[in-house]
Amino acid sequence: MLETHYNYPDYTYDFSPFYRKNLSKQQRNMNIKSRDEAAEPQPEDSDPRSNGDEDLADDGDDSIAMEQQMVDNSGLKLYYTRKLRQHDAGVLSVGLDPNWRHIIPPRQENVISQGHCIGACTQRAFPRDGINIFAVMSRTHLIGRQVKLRQIRGNTELQPIMRDTNIDPSYQDYRRLTVPTKVLPGDSLVAECIYDSSSRKSITLGK
What is stated as this protein's family in its record (predicted)? Predict the structure, then answer.
């Protein structure tokens, strides 16, 4: 067994100026305050979102963001064995990268986003006899509500490989399928996510 850590436990990582600046902007858009801000009394007639447009246009350094720090004690365990398994296993990710191009509008109860693994991709990447999907992990961030993994073969949509209608962001783990699903070269896979942004006052990026 080999155990490695990305960094030392409780190592304090300081964001680069670019990420610190954008993190602080997103915090203000979502009305999230730092510890120092929360301790300071705010005037009754002040609006924490009144300068939101100015924040988006400001490219200067942000004193609040410069003080932002993250404590990371994550790790990684790798296991080695001399005994080869009968079958190889891998991880296939289908969905959307969490970045600023993924925009979810505010105050919406049902926002659908789709990520596609097209047939031309599986045609080239999958072996001739296909692959067997035996476990699935559905992952969203806080406003995710439902996830479905769809399978399309030719002009026919097959039964969903998985469907989770009660997403819990606090519980994200692999779930073994009762019956493995065969996916052939040329099949298309669609990860369909449903979000509820009704509690948000501004757009949400990268979910």
Answer: Belongs to the copper type II ascorbate-dependent monooxygenase family.
* CA–CA distance, 7 with 9 (Å, rounded to integer): 6
Least confident of 6-10, 89-93, 123-127: 6-10
3-class SS of residue 60: coil
Q: Does the pLDDT of residue 36 top 90, yes or no? A: no
- What CATH number matches the domain at 103-205, 2.40.30.20, 2.60.120.230, 3.40.50.720, 3.40.50.300? 2.60.120.230
pLDDT of amino acid 44: 56
Query: Chain centroid to CA 116: how far?
Result: 15
53, 58, 61, 65: CA torsion to nearest 10: 20
Count the Cβ atoms, other than its own, within 10 Å of residue 114. Answer: 13
**3: three-class secondary structure by DSSP:** strand
pLDDT in tens, 79-91: 888 888 887 889 9
